[in-house]
Amino acid sequence: MRLDAIFTFVILIAQSKETSLKQKQEKEQKIRYDNYRVFKIKYESLQQRQLLLELTKQYHSFRLWNENNNELHLMVKPDALPQFERQLKRANASADNFISNVQHLIDLEHEATTKSSPIFGWTRYNNLAEIENWLDEILSAYPNVTESFVIGESYEGRKIRGVRISYKSGNPGVFIESNIHAREWITSATATWLINELLSSGDDLVRGLTESHDWYIVPVLNVDGFVYSHQKDRLWRKTRQPSNISSCIGADPNRNYDAHWLENGGASTNPCAEDYAGPHAFSEPEIKAMSEYVCGIRDKLNVMLAFHSYGQLLLSPYGHTKFEFPYNYDDLMQVAKAFGDAIEGLPYGAVYKYGSAAGILYPASGATNDWAFSQDIKISYTIEFRDTGNFGFVLPPAYILPNAEEALVGIIALLAEAKKLGYLQLKYDP
Ligand code: ARG
Ligand code: ZN
Questions:
Q1: How many A from CA of 14 to the centre of ligand 1?
Q2: Which residue, judged by its Cα, is nearest atom 7 of ligand 1?
Q3: What's the whole-model pTM score?
Q4: Ligand 1, atom 10: nearest CA belongs to which residue?
């Protein structure tokens, strides 16, 4: 062998050692969910619910994935299975195991990401740096109709960015808040796809939609949590601001708005809980920034849509009580029905339910859509995207496009119906 060949060979071995070391470190750094299971648990009484939710106080062994008014989805650590069985018996409830190894889903998702093209797209999930680089490309590709905006800074000092799309003055405004919950990756994938589609589609319906509204889209609101969910814990939900009273980190940003904050058991006072409301309303810098930004332009906004996953739901106010309804509840339901019907008209087979958040889910106080409604943005929803619990938060990237198309078609119908009912009239003199 020639000397330079040997030299290259040695370098190659050294490099491959280095990359495998890197991969190993990366693996070691990430929290793993080997053989963690996720169960759907049906219950009838609030007492049963209480018993089941008690488990989540052991937040290392049990984590709440989802909830609606007769069902909980709970992730269980393998060595906590016997305890889980015992508590199920005590609560006289039955459970259905729908994910048998969470890590397996995370690995498949990771594989899809590393195998697919490095170019930004919607066949894989993109991280924050990729999303921001792509945003810059979009801004320079469409300089006349787009504008970058920054709503503020996160706890860890990251900028929270958005894009405004406006083709003319005098349009009603639609605000899209996305990825307030870190692990709900389908939301920023959908929000970025929407931005791209609004700007580049040649379809008449989409062109009309784009050009007759002003769009304010924040693809990732909870930037710190989102980065953490990519680098460390795929299932992180909250912000990353430490607590003064606990070693648990972060608050639930969607319980942190000053809208019936912490009322009616709609959030937790326990810093370790997934729905910890924070020490006070607007304690989380991201939510304070969001509220100030939205307040500053509230006259320009007619619609607020907060993107979440999962459950396939369109949720109106209120979240803090199921015994009261907004004055325009019937209209909100009519608009929601238009959204749901449009999605059912697509060939993908997804079905969305709709109702008030507290009515069809559970009490949740301090959420975006309730707060926006209180700021006179009268068409205000939380959208829970796919799925209904086969994959939950770890929705395979193959579903990004169907989900995004559903969102677009749903939003087209939603805005048309809202317009029909008179909700898109300007609140200011253009
Ligand atoms: N999954 C969302 C959450 O738990 C739904 C919140 C719905 N409630 C509401 N008030 N918007 O935060
Ligand atoms: Zn969410």
A1: 50
A2: 357
A3: 0.93
A4: 319
Active site residue 384: yes
List pLDDT tens digits, range 157-211: 999 999 999 999 999 999 999 999 999 999 999 999 999 999 999 999 999 999 9
Ligand 1 proximity of 274 Cβ (cutoff 6 Å): no
pLDDT tens per residue, range 276-295: 999 999 999 999 999 999 99
User: What is the per-residue pLDDT for 410?
Assistant: 98
| Ligand 1 neighbourhood includes 312 CB (under 6 angstroms) | no
User: Per the structure block, which two tokens stand in for 120?
Assistant: 């930004």
Q: Residue 195: CB within 6 Å of ligand 1?
A: no
Q: Output helix, strand, coil percentages for the chain, rounded to the nearest 5.
A: 45, 20, 40
- Residue 228 exposure: Cα atoms within 13 Å on the Cβ side: 23
pLDDT by residue (tens digit) across 314-334?
999 999 999 999 999 999 999
Structural domains in the chain, sorted by start: 37-100 (3.30.70.340), 109-420 (3.40.630.10)
263-285: string of b/e by CB count within 10 Å (b at 16+)? ebebbbebbbbbbbbbeebbbbb
State if residue 64 touches ligand 1 by the CB under 6 angstroms criterion: no
